[in-house]
Design brief:
The protein has helices spanning 3-16, 20-27, 43-50, 52-73, 75-86, 99-109, 111-128, 131-149, 151-167, 169-177. By secondary structure, it is mostly helical. The termini are far apart.
């Protein structure tokens, strides 16, 4: 590893570690996202406490941090940005589940995968009512499409999928037991 690559990965991690969901919820007086709903700091949990527009803002910012890391510092910085989102140093390594940040990474590295996977997530999430099921579906499809582009892209997406499945492990248990929470479209 070169010093430049290490510096890029660290930059990506610290960019990803900015906990936008936590900060927005606090600024709006909605409390600590880590103490409500799923306990995650991402858009889905922000939707539970703040409604659509809060979730949209969180998603846009989470997407942007990984997008910018990948665009300006390279593919591995983007991967580390997603890791930073999932395990942010500022919140004692308790962050989101990484789907929004992973989407930003994909949008930066290979937009065609984003264009293909976003409707898949939306269709699965809306059809079955589970955001987590949509996430797990695109985390499975993404690496396959990545390898069609290049080994490097495919490998990066395998890493993101592994992180995503790990972060969704409790959701997987609830999906299998039939106790997973359905999406509640809070229109605040």
């Amino acid at each position: 590893m070169t010093i430049d690559l290490i510096a890029a990965c660290l930059a990506g991690y610290f960019m990803g570690s900015v906990p936008f969901g936590f900060l927005i919820a606090r600024a709006l007086g909605l409390g600590d996202l880590r103490k409500v709903g799923s306990g995650g700091t991402g858009a889905t949990n922000a939707m539970r406490v703040g409604g659509f527009w809060v979730a949209f803002a969180v998603l846009a910012l989470d997407l942007a941090k990984a997008f910018l890391a990948a665009k300006f510092f390279g593919i591995w910085a983007g991967v580390f940005a997603v890791a930073g989102h999932n395990w942010p140093i500022w919140l004692r390594f308790r962050g989101g589940k990484g789907l929004g940040s992973s989407a930003g990474f994909v949008l930066a590295v290979l937009p065609a995968i984003f264009v293909f996977c976003f409707p898949i997530w939306l269709i699965v999430a809306l059809s079955f009512g589970y955001s987590s099921l949509g996430a797990l579906t695109v985390l499975t499809v993404g690496p396959i499409l990545g390898f069609a582009d290049s080994a490097r892209t495919g490998f990066a997406l395998v890493i993101l999928a592994a992180m995503g499945f790990w972060r969704h492990r409790e959701n997987i248990k609830r999906l299998l037991s039939g106790t997973e929470s359905k999406i509640k479209w809070n229109r605040k």
